[in-house]
């Protein structure tokens, strides 16, 4: 079992480390192969001029179809929101075998990672992650297919995420009868966690008929800035995420001429959109990893939320990497599911 340090909204240590952190990163061979493959794909399809070779990327686009018939207790379907911009979501629903029939279930809006540039809800690893969340919590999962950069830059991804919230609020019958829209959560990993934050800010300034957002599940959010942090300097070439890769993604995503201190990237920096005055901004559960170059930006986000008077919990896994949650063979992946289950249960009361 890996070391875990968890902090409450007051910054007090909630759970002591279970084991001392290892001195060197150690990953199972299965994980090492998968990480190498993901890195190979992202490095191969990125061009120096800031564009993506989408034709080549299609050769590596290993997707899973929606499955209306339950698989291990979870059925899925794709719901179109706006065909003109290919805006849709994959809906994951537990069957009575997982959740007793008629039992109200929380709704989690999930935004996938990929540097705003890669992947979709149909990509096999995200299909698997959302199935796992739907089964373990249990919950209704709305996995959003947002537009990708560089073809669609900021704020397209935020617009798409917010518009799916609006769509579900206006079309509750698209979700199963068990869906409790009074207990909604925004969740995402990496770039998806960035989207979840900014969608939450918009939602806090808006009104909804049925949707009530109770929390944000922020898994290793993709934040950054012009400054080089200690983690970026120490780990410029880490597994999955490198400093060169993040710089490229920010350049492809942000408006032309803007640097990484733009408020979309440096969310707690000098140009930040303040949340202190947003009464409806929800509580945040934040996950970080010791071998993630983005970890310092993520911890700054946590500290900024606390200074802003917002509820925030930080869970640190010192001995793992960016995207650890995608690999069920890693113990931290299962531990994260347990933390999310507890958070949703507490916030959904």
Automatic annotation (TrEMBL):
<dbReference type="GO" id="GO:0009860">
    <property type="term" value="P:pollen tube growth"/>
</dbReference>
<dbReference type="InterPro" id="IPR002168">
    <property type="entry name" value="Lipase_GDXG_HIS_AS"/>
</dbReference>
<dbReference type="GO" id="GO:0052689">
    <property type="term" value="F:carboxylic ester hydrolase activity"/>
</dbReference>
<comment type="similarity">
    <text>Belongs to the 'GDXG' lipolytic enzyme family.</text>
</comment>
<dbReference type="Pfam" id="PF07859">
    <property type="entry name" value="Abhydrolase_3"/>
</dbReference>
<protein>
    <recommendedName>
        <fullName>Alpha/beta hydrolase fold-3 domain-containing protein</fullName>
    </recommendedName>
</protein>
<feature type="domain" description="Alpha/beta hydrolase fold-3">
    <location>
        <begin position="108"/>
        <end position="325"/>
    </location>
</feature>
<dbReference type="InterPro" id="IPR013094">
    <property type="entry name" value="AB_hydrolase_3"/>
</dbReference>
<keyword id="KW-0472">Membrane</keyword>
<dbReference type="InterPro" id="IPR029058">
    <property type="entry name" value="AB_hydrolase_fold"/>
</dbReference>
<dbReference type="InterPro" id="IPR050466">
    <property type="entry name" value="Carboxylest/Gibb_receptor"/>
</dbReference>
<keyword id="KW-0378">Hydrolase</keyword>
<feature type="transmembrane region" description="Helical">
    <location>
        <begin position="103"/>
        <end position="126"/>
    </location>
</feature>
<keyword id="KW-0812">Transmembrane</keyword>
<keyword id="KW-1133">Transmembrane helix</keyword>
